[in-house]
Amino acid sequence: EEEKKPEGELEETTLDVEVQLSPIIVADDLIRCIDFELYANCVEDPFVFCVDMHFGGMWDHVGHFTDTLKIPGAGQWFCITAGDQLHTLRSVAFLECVDGVYSAIFKGDPFFGGNWLIGGNLDAWKKENPNASHDVIDILDFGQFVANYLATMDPNTDCETVYDGGHADINGDGVVNVLDFAFIQQNFLAVSKDACCPGSAAGVPTPLLSVSLRDLRSMGLGNLSVADINGDGVLDQQDMNDFTTGHKPRKVGH
Questions:
Q1: Could you give the angle at the alpha carbon of 236 between the alpha carbons of 235 and 241, nearest 5°?
Q2: What pLDDT, in 10s, does the model give residues 142-188?
Q3: Residue 108: pLDDT above 50?
Q4: SS3 at position 178
Q5: To 10 degrees, the CA torsion angle through 154, 159, 164, 170?
Q6: Which residue of 152, 188, 194, 213 has the fewest C-beta atoms within 10 A of its own C-beta?
């Protein structure tokens, strides 16, 4: 008699997914770790997993990933979120299911109803620090950019590597420069999409527009003090304006 496998063993969910990083991404073959949350309902915790995705390459446009994923486990899912904790906000898509195969699309400019992954959120990975702006692009993301300014970095960020100092090479050209600042400037005050269940998150996050260096240190974010470009003891939009007009930080800490 054939031995029955324990319930749930080797079960997989097939997910056809398309993910687009907000432009402009310059690397034509870029690896980024994308975190996903699958929701079956609004009572249970979501199923969380991450995938190393190759954006661009031979079969895709620059900044795009299109493929079929095999996810351990099975469930009746209705909604999915996606985000790169080092570089983007979180986005949301509702799932379609045909013949047991799920599909989700994250692409297109949100201004026109799309849901690509918006670049410029540089501190979602700081989960242990509640003072970080995990779900909004604000002055703290500018601070993280300046803390990494002019650093040369491997543009590929897989799910196995820990980046304790952040990774502000948003566009994937291997160096943190004004092209990466453009993401923060263009998407300033943009927020993550709420989770799949309305009211399940704490609501729209409040952006931080100004913070003293003393408060930064008390928040455990003292390394961002290098972004006080004009030296007035406050990290704010004036520092962003000064950077835009050619003033550079007196020192940086990669």
A1: 120
A2: 999 999 999 999 999 999 998 989 999 999 999 999 999 999 999 99
A3: yes
A4: helix
A5: 50
A6: 152
167: tokens are 């990774």
Residue 36's pLDDT is what? 96
* DSSP conformation letters of 69-114: EEEES-----EEEEE-TTTB--EEEE-EEETTEEEEEE-S-GGGT-
Number of H helices, E strands in the chain: 4, 10
**Residue that is written with structure tokens 């609004």 in the block:** 42
Whether 107 and 115 have beta carbons less than 8 Å apart is answered as: yes
The pair of structure tokens assigned to 82 is 């996606």
Instruction: Evaluate the omega torsion of the peptide bond into residue 184 and state whether it is cis, within 30 degrees of 0.
Output: no
Structure-token pair, residue 222: 């003292």
pLDDT at 204 over 80: no
The 3-state DSSP composition of the chain as helix, strand, coil percent (nearest 5) reads: 15, 30, 55
Q: Residue holding tokens 């995938």?
A: 51
Write the DSSP symbol of residue 119: B
Q: What's this model's pTM, rounded to 2 decimal places? A: 0.92
Average pLDDT of the residues in 213-242: 97
Give per-residue pLDDT as tens, 62-86. 999 999 999 877 788 999 999 999 9
